[in-house]
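## retry 2 of 3
previous attempt timed out at serialization; input unchanged, resubmitting
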Amino acid sequence: MSDSCGCEIAPPEKIDHLVIIGGGSAAFAAAIKGSELSARVTMINGGLPIGGTCVNVGCVPSKFMIRAAETIHRANNNGFEGVETNGRVADYKSVVAQRRRLVEELRRAKYMDVVADLPGFTRIEGMARLVSPGIVEVNGERIDADRILIATGAAPKIPSIPGLAQSGYLTSSTTFELEEIPESIIVLGGRYIAVEMAQMLSRFGGRVTMLQRSSRILPVEMEDLTEELTKYLAGEGIEIVTGVALKNISRKNGETVVEAIVEGENRMFNASELLVATGNKPNTEGMGLEEAGVELDGDGFVKVDDSLQTNVNGIYGAGDVIGGPMFVYTAAYEGALAAENAILGSNRQRDYVPLPWVVFTDPQVAGVGLDEIEAKEKGIDAEAATLPLSHVPRSLAARDTRGFIKLIRDRETDRLIGARILAPEGSELLMEVSLAVKHGITVKEIISSFHPYLTLAEGIKLAAITFGKSVEKLSCCAT
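## retry succeeded, writing output
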């Protein structure tokens, strides 16, 4: 190995022992990478069972329950004349039991079994605390570490509202443990977890009221998307109240009572249960991070640079505990990257461009890259083309034309720079667009590519065509 002058330089010293605090996706990706790089790895997990949020109380149980609720809804709302279907919850406890079995199966197969035979791997159950930048304490034992990775995840954030603690509440985690669906429920929040949970509970038969502080749900997204989604959720009977300032919460006569100000007026909302879905907080309390000199941001998240190292040399962070995009796939990516940098002494930088994301409502909300406002802020002369699903043959044949596909391109280069999709199974359209954004593919190239007729994916091509033509003037399969 040599530098620019041809002089021999020593390679970075490889470390031997990586201690990972946490047991979720970031931690497991780091453990696997560490083992691949021949390091000794010790994982210390406390709190949630092995697997962390995703498999235990997040992605897996939520998507299972969302699909079960969707099955009922579709059975009761098919769009085909002469076809009679109906759906109902015959035994909700059986649904919950099946969900638990799935969680247990995946926890074992995708986590426990994966690390069972990893060379040099040790797992310890217990709550870890940093004694110093190179020592971690757990269960009264001190463990020496060459490098430390903090991957403790996040948990539901509970707002400070008078009466909330005394009245009791559900979170996105505890709701899945209910043995029966509440007759009525108030959902505090209007971002992705809140809208997913609200629709699921409504489709299982609960009367749902959403109370959102902002002027609309999913407030960081474009208005055309959120207005359309609001219309569909409201059409299913969900009451969505925005611009809400919460004053007090109490429990009276077996119901939760929420007192709030809406558009300057006092209003009262009653329901049998209350679900708090107002964001997440990092799991950093009681870990000795500040005593070890690790900087946290104003919300308690671990601050890292783009190589995922904290301000303390040798201590890294990955996953939800560092804030930023909180997805299982970004957590796994960060865990592996942090482990590689820690063990090899390298400085590889994280890169989230392009980062696809999904909100699992029905229709689904999916996006990647820039929207029109973000593009303008970056000085890009952007243009958007929006195609309602009523112009997509697959959607017409399936009798479900809810939503639209919107593509955003750079006028100067014709390159695709982003997309926003509202569609049944809209998430399945993301990867074509994501790869197009990543590799600088132009709208012209998308139009010239074959897309099978009567697929939802054909909608991407049709949306691309609308930059220059009206699809109303095209025949089937035309370009």
